Amino acid sequence: MSRFKHEPNTMPLVLKTKPERDLLPSGLPLAMFAAHDEQAKINHGQTLEVLAARGGLSPAEALAILDDEDWTARPRDAATSCAQLAALIDIWNRTHPAADEPA
User: Fold this and answer.
1) Which domain range does residue 85 map to?
2) Alpha carbon distance 8, 34 (integer Å)
3) Count of domains forming the chain
4) Which is nearest to 26 in space by CA: 11, 37, 36?
5) Exposed, middle or buried: residue 29 (CB in 10 Å: 0-12, 13-18, 19+)?
6) Do residues 44 and 72 make contact, with C-beta atoms less than 8 angstroms apart?
């Protein structure tokens, strides 16, 4: 297993381009993926925790898991994946405020 260090309870995102880094955070709460662990196993043959420990997911991989779709179900270009993932993150943040923020 990789010695990649990541924040506990976080799924790191592998952001390769400046537009990706400008639009997306470096990681997402593992709780965001909680209902999709089986899809992670289908797509990658690994649990979410193992994927996080090994370095995380690309935006397209994360989106496929969150959409409960097979990795090969539809092509996902980087710009579209980033925009769609950013929209899901926005929804998550609005419906799951941080503990130190008012609901």
Assistant:
1) 10-95
2) 14
3) 1
4) 11
5) middle
6) no
The pTM (predicted TM-score) of the whole model is: 0.86
Q: Is residue 61 within 8 Å of 43, Cβ to Cβ?
A: yes
Q: What are the structure tokens assigned to 9, written together?
A: 């309870």
DSSP-assigned letters across all residues of 40-68: HHHHHSS-HHHHHHTT-B-HHHHHHHHTT
- Does residue 101 belong to any structural domain of this protein? no
- Look at residue 17 and tell me if it is in a domain: yes
Residue type, position 52, single letter: A
pLDDT value at position 5?
64
Q: Tell me how far the alpha carbon of residue 55 is from its chain's centroid.
A: 11
Q: The tokens of 72 are what? A: 């090969």
Q: Calculate ∠ Cα 82-67-8, nearest 5°.
A: 70
Which residues of the chain fall short of a pLDDT of 70? 1-6, 99-103
Angle between helix axes 37-44 and 59-66 (nearest 10 degrees) is 130
